[in-house]
Amino acid sequence: TDDDTFSNVFCENSKKLIDVHLFALAAKYYSLSNLGVCTPLEDVLEAWRGDNEGTTGIKTDEFMNNKKSHEVQVMSELVDKIVNYCGIKQVIDIGSGKGYLSSYLSMQYNLKVYGIDSSNSNTSGAHERNRKLKKHWKAYQRRGRANLKNQRWEKSNDRPVESEMKCTAINEKPFIDSSFQSQDQVVIQPSCSFTERATSETSKQTEVDSVARTQSDDSKVSEEVLAMLNVLPADAVEDFSLSQCNYGELCEEEKVQRKMASLKAKASKSSESNLYIPLTSCITAETELSDIITDLEDCIMVGLHTCGDLAANTLRIFTAKPEIKAVCSVGCCYHLLSEQFENQEDCSEEVWGFPMCQYLKDKGWCCGRNARMSACLALERVAVGQMLPTESLFYRAVLQVIIEDIYGVTKSNQHVGKTFSKSSSFIDYVRKSLKKLELDDSKLPDSCIMDYYEKYKHRMNELEAFNMLKVVLAPCIEVLILLDRLCYLKEQDNIAWSGLVKLFDPVKSPRCYAVIALKKQS
């Protein structure tokens, strides 16, 4: 497009918006989906596919909400491809939170995962949640066996009629199922009468069919009823097919051998180190990982919705530490990013969340908090009918007018938070908010609060229109933040490949872009 295409969006003198339609077209033009700078997820998965086959795993929506389930499954599949491509087995999950991604990576893909979170309650909760998940799988295993036993019992009761119908087709040849090789497992007496022979044949065929059904049922159970057990490492789950054999028919030597094998397996499992280890630590750009992880080795660093500066610091640690061979980072909470040029102060020695790349640093680029707040909005959700919470936004806007007029406060480090959902009315909302902001509400009568509400009520539609414009602009601001991170990686000499990949469905998970990079082989 020509430089002049969008020149008439704003008035040249007043700088006011004069063409809404052109504004929307410009915003779409400069969005990530239109710029062509992203690498398709399918291309990345194909490039790093390797020889390993896909695995059938746990249904994550049994333990997570729909959004988290979608994120964990997609991201873990990609991480698995990267670690196999790089030949590594260790994962560091930065800002691991409740440990959903860490648990899934360790159990589904048999990886050693260190989940690091600054919140001790998150770490403790993740540890306990992981323990309960393993316990749940064991219970699921026992329940699956019981269900299988009941299914066989029901089928065996229905079998005689069907077997008798097949008797007429039985001849004097011994029937030997292909799964049996020894002569003594199926014995036919040729001298018996047809009835006896048919009964014998039917009995033996039923026995053989039962074994065949056992194998088929085992397969069905492991695929359906026990699908979630596939998440555990191959050596962490007892093999069902072995345990279904008739233990009473084994000779003493075989019994002893099996018992010894079982004891060895249990001893091996008990001595095995945990595959998922939650740790509590506050991560900064200067963090020395070897101080936190004593057995640090070649690894990948991942982050699923790392908040604010943590996403930027994840990339800085990746470029600085030789042990980290790859990174896959999905950031969020852009409004919490620190900006070098926001306050126009000379703090060049500090580490900032934005900008990261030298190009934007040289230009002294600044977004500002309002723009970063807008970047957090979800255009795709609004596009499918999930409208903005207009009333709560209106409450918040009028509250700000009250605080400025009555208390003379224009800036505060305190936050109102989710007061709207806990309030019964606008008056209740204002009073709860003032308490949170540590402002005295005793000099503010209810009538005064309602006067402000009535004064601005007619402008609610205006506020909604303004917020819709912010939603339309949101992807453009997100582009700036994500391309800054990608450019930072492109500026490094030790990076073999880096790119932006759209991982998630943006309706399910609005912050859907991952910054991915691989180091050059040393």
Task: Explain this structure.
- This protein is of the alpha/beta class.
- Among the domains are: 20-137 and 273-376 and 475-519, Vaccinia Virus protein VP39 (Rossmann fold, 3-Layer(aba) Sandwich); 388-457.
- Helices cover 49% and strands 9% of the residues.
- It has helices spanning 20-29, 32-35, 41-47, 66-86, 100-109, 120-166, 194-223, 240-243, 252-271, 289-292, 309-320, 358-362, 369-375, 379-383, 390-407, 426-436, 446-456, 460-490, and strands spanning 90-94, 112-117, 276-280, 299-307, 324-332, 495-502, 513-519.
- The chain has a 7-stranded mixed beta sheet with strand order 3-2-1-4-5-7-6, sandwiched between helices.
- Strand 1, helix 5 and strand 2 form a beta-alpha-beta unit.
- The longest helix has 47 residues, at 120-166.
- The protein is globular.
- The model is unreliable at 160-204, 211-248 and 263-274 (pLDDT under 50).
What are the SSEs and their pairings?
Elements lengths: L19 H10 L2 H4 L5 H7 L18 H21 L3 E5 L5 H10 L2 E6 L2 H47 L27 H30 L16 H4 L8 H20 L4 E5 L8 H4 L6 E9 L1 H12 L3 E9 L25 H5 L6 H7 L3 H5 L6 H18 L18 H11 L9 H11 L3 H31 L4 E8 L10 E7 L3
Parallel strand pairs: 1-2, 1-4, 2-3, 4-5
Antiparallel strand pairs: 5-7, 6-7
Helix pairs in contact: 1-18, 4-5, 6-7, 13-18, 15-17
